[in-house]
Amino acid sequence: RHCTDTVCCVIFIVVILGYIALGIVAWVHGDPRKVIYPTDSYGQFCGQKDTTNENKTILFYFNILKCASPVVLINLQCPTTQLCVSKCPDRFATYIDVQASYRYKPDQWNYFRQFCKPGFNNPRKSVAQVLRDEDCPSMIIPSRPFLKRCFPDFSTKNGVLTVANQTTFRDGRGKTRNVTDLREAANGINNVLDARSVGVKIFEDYAISWYWILIGLFIAMIVSLLFLVLLRFTAGVLFWIFIFGVIGIIGYGIWHCYWEYDHLKGIPGSDLTVYDIGFQTDFRVYLQLRQTWLAFMILLCIVEVIIILMLIFLRNRIRIAIALLKEGSRAIGYIMSTLFYPIVTFILIAICISYWAVTAVFLATSGEPVYKVMANQTLCKYANLTCDPETFNTTNVTKLCPGAQCTFAFYGGESLYHKYIFIFQLANAFVFLWLVNFAIALGQCTLAGAFASYYWASRKPADIPLWPLFSSFGRAIRYHTGSLAFGALILAIVQLIRVILEYLDHKLKGTQNSFTRFLLCCLKCCFWCLEKFLKFINRNAYIMIAIYGKNFCTSAKEAFFLLMRNVVRVAVLDKVTDFLLFLGKILVAGGVGVLAFFFFTQRMPVFAQEAPILNYYWVPLLTVIVGSYLVAHGFFSVYAMCVDTLFLCFCEDLERNDGSTAKPYFMSASLHRILGKKELSPKKA
Fold first, then answer.
1. CA-CA distances (angstroms) from residue 526 to 353, 492, 495, 541, 624?
2. Which of 146, 174, 202 is the endpoint of a domain?
3. What are the CA-CA distances from residue 637 to residues 338, 469, 470, 539, 570 (Å)?
4. Is 118 within the bounds of a domain?
5. In a domain, 646, yes or no
6. Residue 67 falls inside a structural domain
7. Which of 70, 131, 378, 426 has the most crowded Cβ, counting Cβ within 10 A?
8. Rounded to whole angstroms, how far apart are CA atoms 139 and 92?
């Protein structure tokens, strides 16, 4: 053994160090609170602990009517003063009325004042100056919090839109407005906040249910282990039970359809055809027709006949696939530690995902508060220009543009770091893909080395190394990190290109250029096929690396031509085995998914009180289902890798040896019988 693909190994280590540096820089500049908390006109978070806004969790707009302006869509910020408040207003009121009656109705003034700028308590100041300086809002309207922001409390009365049972209101500037104006303003904000609101809700759901998600994934891990243990002893029995179970279920379906068909005989209207009743939105109508059940029965009969014919003609191939699983079970029986190696791969991938997600969030929230001039006058030349709130009042902007304010716009910056945030996000995604593919490659090479040591042992299990899995892991890390990183790099590049193509396709969906859409579709299809081909080549290349210790390119070439010389065996044995394992993945993911569905929808009386209250129950549900499938995939990949390794070793054994005394086969006697090879010089196994 010697180190392979050293240059790629050095590059890989340098990239990892750079990735760590990128994460540190992002953590220094980023602040995830910018995603969670709304921000007032001074760049302060609403509800932030240990600040003056700790108990003020809701954002209040001075003049929500301005939020209907196109400026909202341009700057993603409503051009009016925004303050953090503890609660939204619950009544109609104008500053003019409150100021006029503050001497004999101080309660109204004290209530209104909580929606003014902090520290303002000067009812003697003229109304014009107050409204010009935006010390207080010109009006308040009944509102309720939505997405931690005060929105008008709309309701419908007799089909008419109202707010607090009123259809009109005074805007505090001498005009009477219709509540539909408020609807337009609220929609202006909602158009900006829709995407963010969904993201925030999903984030909240994950924050509430993350430990239940982990419990679901742990259950999937246990179920996968149990399934592998059962497969270790009863691979054939489980498969035939599943096959006959499917046949039995379809048979019951045929009987039930016939029973329904016969039961509807003589019932008025049941002899009508689907064509007679036409299309109906209530599909239960079709279940009252005999023709519907007859069609179902014929369809199920066809499916039943096809399955039975496939079992008859493919019985030998199915027997071979089951036999290979049993041979793999023997290898796993001697190297039981391989069953737990997917936990290592799972932990490595979880670390990669966590690091990527945290870094992406911190990169997205990197930036300093950027303030811009918000002017009431559309012709103000300073509008939308950046400004400094500390020196804004000393400039001429307020004189040239009366009512203009220097308000918080967004988080950003003009530094070199902020200019290349997008590039950093792209690099974050690329290195993430590279690391995930490397973790998978390391697992495949480690398992292949362990199972190859089983196959090439002359006397099984006496000649199997004491710690085959740990020895294989050590060889992969010590000698072949560069080769594994090289294969992972090629795959990561193709996957990144696919991600970019998906992004471009999403952006160009609205275009009418048919040629562009066709070209993108072709590129996506080609790169999808290329990714599948590279995964297949990489997998077998890692097996050859584990056996012979050669570099990636040489191993990939030898594996490819070896498989091409045995292409029929590959198609028959490998793919049928993959299909059997795929059924197991569906079983695990489906079972855990059903359990998660009943739990998160609070349909399990035992755990009804424990189930979290969610915005979207499908967020943790889909996470559990996808995660369970990935967990099952990780565990079942042990069997798949075992079968692939034994098959490749078998093909290599056939080409290197002839079964004579000088060149005896290394395969076991059972594998001889499975694959129809006669041993010229039998040896003890």
1. 27, 16, 12, 22, 31
2. 174
3. 10, 15, 18, 11, 17
4. yes
5. no
6. yes
7. 131
8. 7
Burial 326-354 (b: 16+ CB within 10 A, else e): bbbbbbbebbeebbebbebbbebbeebee
The total number of structural domains that make up the chain:
2
User: Are 650 and 611 spatial neighbours (Cβ–Cβ below 8 Å)?
Assistant: no
Quick one: what percent of the chain has pLDDT higher than 70?
Answer: 84
* Cα separation of the two ends of the chain: 27
- 480 sits in the region (left: phi over 0; alpha: psi -120 to 50; else beta) called alpha
Give CA–CA dist 98/652, Å, rounded: 92
Q: Given pLDDT bands bounded at 50, 70 and 90, which one contains residue 541?
A: very high
pLDDT at 593: 84
Contacts of 83 (CB under 8 A, 6+ apart): 40, 41, 56, 59, 60, 62, 115, 117, 118
pLDDT of the residue at 71: 44
pLDDT, averaged across the chain: 80
Spatial separation of the C-alpha atoms in residues 600 and 622, rounded to whole Å? 11
Per-residue DSSP letter, 317: H
Contact 372, 385 (CB under 8 A): yes
User: In this predicted structure, what is the pLDDT of residue 482?
Assistant: 92
CA–CA gap between residue 428 and residue 472 (Å, rounded): 30
List the one residue out of 246, 257, 285 whose CA is nearest residue 269: 285
In this structure, the dihedral spanned by the alpha carbons of residues 214, 215, 220 and 225, taken in order and rounded to 10 degrees, is: 110
In one letter, which amino acid is 39?
T
Locate 198 and state its tokens.
Answer: 């969904």
Query: Is the pLDDT confidence value at 110 over 80?
Result: yes
**Considering the domain boundaries, does residue 633 fall inside one?**
no
Q: Is the peptide bond before 461 cis (omega within 30 degrees of 0)?
A: yes
Average pLDDT over residues 117-138: 83
Sign of torsion, CA 375 377 383 387?
Answer: negative
Q: In the numeric block, which tokens belong to residue 370? A: 């950027």
Q: Which residue has the higher pLDDT, 328 or 356?
A: 356
Residue 606 has pLDDT above 50, yes or no: yes
Q: What is the pTM of this model?
A: 0.66
Mean of the pLDDT values across residues 661-672?
72
Range of the domain at 404: 369-412
Tens of pLDDT, residue by residue over 215-258, are 888 888 888 878 777 766 776 777 777 778 778 888 888 998 88
For residue 72, name the pLDDT band (cuts at 50, 70, 90).
very low
The letter for the amino acid at 308 is: I
Of 142, 174, 206, the domain-final residue: 174
